Amino acid sequence: MERINKVLARAGVASRRGADTLIEEGRVTVNGEIVRELGVKIDPARDAVKVDGRRIHLTADAKLYLMLHKPDGVVTTLDDPEGRTTVRDLLRGVRGRVFPVGRLDYHSEGLLFFTNDGEWANELMHPQRKVAKVYRVKVRGTPSRATLARLSAGIRLDGRRTAPARFRLSGSGTNAWLDVTLYEGRKNQVRRMLRSVGHPVSRLRRLSIGGVELGELPPGRWRPLTGAELKRLRRAVREGADGP
Length: 244
Description:
The chain is an alpha+beta fold. It has helices at 4-10, 16-24, 87-90, 118-125, 145-153, 189-196, 227-242; strands spanning 2-3, 28-30, 33-34, 41-42, 49-51, 54-55, 65-70, 99-101, 109-115, 133-139, 156-157, 160-161, 166-171, 177-182, 201-209, 212-213, 222-224. Strands 7, 8, 9, 10, 13, 14, 15, 16 and 17 form a nine-stranded mixed sheet that branches. Strand 11 (156-157) and strand 12 (160-161) form a beta hairpin.
C-alpha cells in the first residue's frame, strides 16, 4: 500500500504537493469514488486511479528533465480555460507528458523546469531544501540600503516572517534593477515583498535555480538538462537538507 500522492508523482502526473492539490479539488478517483482525504493509501497494482476521468498507469518510461525560458504572457499550466498561451504550447517536440516544477506568474519570465519524475520535483520544491532561486527584477523607484537590508532579513507576509534572502541593487536610476535570491517559494513572493515596501515590480526574470542558469536560451525555447546540471541540482538539494 502506498500514499496516493506518491503513486501519482511516480506516474508523472504531478509532484506530491501538486497531487495533493488535485485531491483537494476533487479531481482524483479510486475505484470510481472521489478521494477527499489527503494521505489515503492505495494498492497501485489493484486499484483503478483516475485524474479528471482518465486512468493513470504506472510506466517504465524514461525520465525527462527539461528547462524552458518562459516568456511574459504565458500561463504556467498545461491547460487554460481562458484560451491563453500555456507552457504546454511551448514544449513542441517533447515526447511524453511532463509538468512544471514550481511556477512563474503570467507576467514573469525566465527559468522553469519540467519533468515526469514526481519524486525529483518534490525534492527540489520542498521548502526544507532551501534551494536558491535567483531573479533579476526591475522596480519602481530605488530602494534605500535600509529597505534592502530589511527585505534581506525578512518581513511579515501572510502573518509570518519570510526566510532570510538577498536583495542587492544592481542598477540605479528612476527605476532600479535588483538581484534577488530566495530560499523559499511562496506564491508571487518577490512581487509581494517589494510591493509591501513601496517598490512594485515592473519586470521579473528568474535567472537560476540551484546553481543551474538560464544562460543564453532564447525566450520560448526549451532544452534537456545536462547530466552536470542534474548533479548540481541534486547537490543543491542535499546541501539544503544538511544545512542549519
